[in-house]
Amino acid sequence: MKNAASGSDSGKNVLCIGDLGWKEERKCDLRYFFHYEGAEFVNLGQNRPRHALDRLVSLSEAKKRFLSGQYEVVVAGSIPTPFLNPRKGFLHRWGNYAGRMLHIPSVREAIRGEQMLKLFSPRLVALDLEDRPIIDNHRFTAGRLCQLFFKRELPQNPANAFLYTTDKNEDNGNIPRQPFFANFIEKLRPISIGVEPSILERGKSRAWEKTSDVFFVGRVANRPNRPTGMKQLERLREEGFRMDLPQTKVNRADFFERCAASLSVWSPEGFGYDCTRTYEAAAMGSVPILQYPTIQRHAPLVDGKHALYYGVEGDELYQTLRHWLARPEALREIGRAAQEQVARHHTFGQLAQYVVETAKATFASAPLAPR
């Protein structure tokens, strides 16, 4: 029997270790692998695991299976060990440490799991799906031991991922001169935030009638890039274009319906550039409207083919939309292409497969990094 997600035998060939205690799937670093049949999981979080409960194994059992050759790839997500982050203030640093130490049994297991990364090192990859472009210091152990490090929000200049992490890293020109960071940079690979498969299924469930031209709902306060854009969208509304710009929150079901009913969805940068909204809009067959990228991207949505891009200067958002809204059939075609691009590359299952295939190719083609 073949594994539909991985194309491999139905046995579990991928081990994932990290915090599985997140209530929402989309907040867990290991979320892609919940949709990959060939994965087993070790929970190293302080809370009881909430995901993949039928595929959990103990750390001891994972060690035995790794040594027997069962796992081809080991994936490390966030491992919540007590850690005095040098980038935090004194009280924040020690408060976080003390809070972690209140959960002594789980702390011991997390420390043991992090120590075991050395054993897993020849087959180890790491996932960092946080919003920030900086790689947090607590991930440096995994970064040192892994063969590949997949980073969402990976800066176009990868050295910038380590700015201000040490007192030597205030200048990105100094970062590649340090052997640890030079080696780390070579391991970095981009990955997208992706979309839950069920959302794509909803988008493909029927042909949606397009009743608006542009849809946007979201916070504007404390997002300096958004008020200027909103003024440009309101200008288009004054000119007679169909703008769906609710001023209050909408529930998730309504959000997806309105995405599908709109030719395009404005997806400005939020906590990170690579926004969930972008892939949700595309999954619903709508054209994402995006700022020019500030990060490296995996399987990017291409300008004029899967999405539309604009510069933040002047009224470029208005000008870009004004041009394309005069071509509604072209926008429909771009929306269909965006949906197919998401189906091929950006569902959680496809992203898990990308990690595994990239890892296997790396292990097969290059000598393993010395430790």
Low-confidence stretches: 1-10
Q: Which secondary-structure class do the elements indicate? A: alpha/beta
CATH fold group of the largest domain: Rossmann fold
Q: What is the C-level CATH assignment of the largest domain? A: Alpha Beta
DSSP, total strands: 11
Q: What's the shape?
A: globular
As a percent range, the share of strand residues is 5-15%
Report the order of strands and helices: EEHEHHEHEHEHEHEHEHEEHHH
Biggest β-sheet, characterized? 6 strands, parallel
Number of domains: 2
Strand order in space, largest sheet: 2-1-3-4-5-6
Report, as a whole number of angstroms, the end-to-end distance.
Answer: 37 Å
Mean pLDDT: 91
CATH architecture of the largest domain: 3-Layer(aba) Sandwich
Compute the gyration radius: what is it? 22 Å
**DSSP helix fraction:** 25-40%
- The number of distinct helices, counting runs of at least 4 residues, comes to 12
What structural keywords apply?
single chain, 371 residues, alpha/beta, Rossmann fold, 2 domains, six-stranded parallel sheet, five-stranded parallel sheet, 12 helices
Notes on the protein architecture:
The chain is of the alpha/beta class. It folds into 2 domains: 14-194 and 348-365, Rossmann fold; 197-345, Rossmann fold, CATH 3.40.50. Helix content is 37%, strand content 12%. It is built from 12 helices and 11 strands. It has helices spanning 59-67, 90-101, 104-120, 140-145, 179-187, 197-203, 226-238, 252-260, 276-283, 316-325, 328-345, 348-365, and strands spanning 14-18, 39-43, 73-76, 124-128, 148-151, 188-190, 212-215, 243-244, 262-266, 287-291, 308-310. A 6-stranded parallel β-sheet has the order 2-1-3-4-5-6. Strands 8-7-9-10-11 form a 5-stranded parallel β-sheet, sandwiched between helices. β7 (212-215), α7 and β8 form a beta-alpha-beta unit. α9 crosses α11 (328-345). It is globular and about 65 Å long. The chain starts with 13 loop residues before the first strand and ends in a 6-residue tail after the last helix. 39% of the residues are buried. Residues 1-10 have low confidence and may be disordered.
